[in-house]
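Quick one: sequence plus pyridoxal-5'-phosphate SMILES, need structure tokens.
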Amino acid sequence: MKPQVRSARNGVLIAGPVGLGAPGSSLIETERRHGACNYEPLPVVMTHGEGVWLWDEHGRRYLDMLSAYSAVSHGHAHPRIVQALIAQAQRLAVTSRAVHTDKLPLFLKRLTELTGLDRALPVNTGVEAVETALKAARKWGYRVKGIPEGKAEVIACENNFHGRSITIVGFSSDPQYGDGFGPFAPGFKLIPFGDAAALAAAITPHTAAFLVEPIQGEGGIVVPAAGYLAECARICREHRVLLLADEIQTGMGRTGKFLACEHEGVVPDGVALGKALGGGMLPVSAFVATNEVMQVFHPGDHGSTFGGNPLAATVALEALAVLYDEGLIERSAELGAYLLAQLQTIKSPLIRDIRGRGLFVGLEVDARRTDARAIVDRLLARGVLSKDTHGTVVRFAPSLTITREEIDWAVEQVRAVFTELGKGMRRAA
Ligand SMILES: *Cc1c(COP(=O)(O)O)cnc(C)c1O
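Reply:
Sure thing.
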């Protein structure tokens, strides 16, 4: 079913009272009481989703400009992906890798075709794909490059986000991510993001790999200067260091190419994919790499019970097919440029910067005047779901199926929020 734009334009229908999530919501209370408090969700209880729209327990409708941090790039309940899921669930869902299935080979082959790489290793979540990349890189360092045992180094960037395992939070520059979780794995070095000279300076004979997000997502949609990734690729080649791209958020068409690396003509030695690979239905991730890298894995070296199960492989294959059949990658490029241009027409002293690539846009507020959460809360009250990241950036990453009319409506809500806040400021002054 096509999402309806008609009532989207009717702000009255969507805009609920502020203080959504009425403190009375017993579901929120139940979650607070029985769950670990490792998240601080917006006070709204979603019960249903279709395309770019979400509905809460009171039947209020929201334009989903977050799409589960890019996991729902195909939109909620994409009919083809739902059908593929149901049909495969009735046939065969999980076998473990103790046997072959008729689905996994097709999924692996498709991943290599789309990335220009040789072999794929399927896992489930993003963090597992990055862990797989790190294991591959270290072992490649010892067995192929000849780094002395126990000395392999991996260079990563400040402000990175690669997941939440102990290894990975151990090299996060966000003090909260690692706080209380040490001791951490040694062998990681951080350099500033966007600075290719810093990469060249940090490389030693013990460096196995450079791990990088082509655009930093959780770090605040940080887009490096043109040429950065290509220069990093050149430096890595020169020093025989693997270039590992974490495209868990930027991949799958999010930035207007299948991989964000393609904007600079870069084919990395290994790439981590996740999030939208699961079609907004299942956790599906993979590490895809060259023969030279992947040949380090022998039976028993690495694995995952659910990795590459036929249900996941089928859903991911369908998600990849839909991406191309519906032209979603081109849509992301075109409508992303449109969204960016429209947002940039909003003039407010509260806005510091608006940046992005494809349907991956960050609006940075001036931290001295407001915070991103205040914008997110007001947008939510107007029926637009977005999310703040790192305090000062509002992230807009709708599903790639969004229409121009829906973007227009969302931008009007953003404009209205800044007008409201601007008036408040003038009164306060
Ligand atoms: C979300 C994300 C991850 C972690 O993925 P999970 O599925 O949450 O483990 C890793 N890297 C990047 C760039 C991400 O955006």
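Residues 1-21 have pLDDT under 50 and may be disordered. The radius of gyration is 22 Å.
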